[in-house]
């Protein structure tokens, strides 16, 4: 990312440059989505320190994630690594909709250093996409329930028990921090669909 700079005597959020080997502070306005083929999306992202989570720059990162997510036609979650930032966190939300009335809504939430615990052997199938792989959705099997343990923006421990589509969403975002995308989880890659921009005929 061009325009990266360092600030003395502050914790460092690690921003990928070039082949993801060098890290420095970045102006959050410079952050842009990484797309499939970028090595950042295949890296296992390291956890953040408490100092990093509590830094003002982490707050700027959260704002940047929500800003980028709001600009997208689709999307319920976004990882820091998708903005080239080498920090183990993501944001996600799940609004109440008529299509998932049996799923509790998730307000806008920041997940730092998340840990996934699968709590069911039952599986569900759901259509998933990825803002880093635009225009494609695929049918993916996910465990029907899970618990995500994480730290909030105040570095306080939290946990969410999720079921159904929300469980799949959180597993999807956790996968991204392990360098795994939804295409890797598809048992049949023929079961994918191509999306047209809104307003264009299908």
Q: What does this molecule look like?
A:
This protein is an alpha+beta fold and 202 residues long. It has four helices and eight strands. The strands form two sheets. The chain has a five-stranded antiparallel sheet with strand order 1-2-3-6-7. A three-stranded antiparallel sheet has the order 4-5-8. The radius of gyration is 17 Å and the shape is globular. Mean pLDDT is 81; it is low at 1-12, 16-29 and 196-202.
Task: Count the beta strands.
Answer: 8
Number of helices: 4
User: Can you give the mean pLDDT?
Assistant: 81
Q: Rg to the nearest angstrom? A: 17 Å
Instruction: Please state the overall shape, judged from the principal axes of the Cα atoms.
Output: globular
Unreliably modeled segments: 1-12, 16-29, 196-202
Order of helices and strands: HHEEEEEEEHHE
The N- to C-terminal Cα distance equals 36 Å
Describe the strand arrangement of the main beta sheet, using strand numbers: 1-2-3-6-7
Q: Report the portion of residues in β strands.
A: 25-35%
Helix amount: 10-25%
């Amino acid at each position: 990312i061009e325009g990266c700079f360092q600030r003395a005597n502050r914790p460092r959020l690690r921003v990928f440059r070039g082949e993801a080997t060098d890290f420095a502070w970045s102006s959050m306005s410079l952050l842009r989505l990484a797309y499939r083929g970028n090595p950042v999306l295949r890296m296992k992202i390291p956890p953040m320190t408490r100092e990093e989570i509590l830094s003002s720059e982490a707050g700027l990162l959260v704002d940047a994630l929500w800003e980028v997510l709001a600009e997208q036609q689709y999307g319920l979650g976004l990882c820091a690594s998708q903005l080239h930032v080498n920090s183990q966190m993501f944001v996600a939300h799940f609004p109440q909709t008529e299509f998932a009335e049996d799923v509790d809504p998730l307000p806008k939430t920041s997940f730092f250093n998340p840990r996934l615990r699968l709590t069911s052997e039952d599986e569900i199938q759901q259509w998933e996409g990825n803002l880093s792989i635009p225009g494609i959705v695929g049918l993916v099997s996910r465990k029907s329930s899970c618990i995500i343990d994480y730290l909030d923006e105040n570095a306080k421990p939290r946990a969410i028990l999720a079921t159904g589509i929300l469980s799949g969403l959180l597993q999807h975002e956790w996968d991204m921090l392990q360098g795994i995308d939804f295409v890797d989880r598809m048992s049949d890659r023929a079961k994918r669909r191509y999306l047209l921009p809104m307003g264009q005929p299908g």
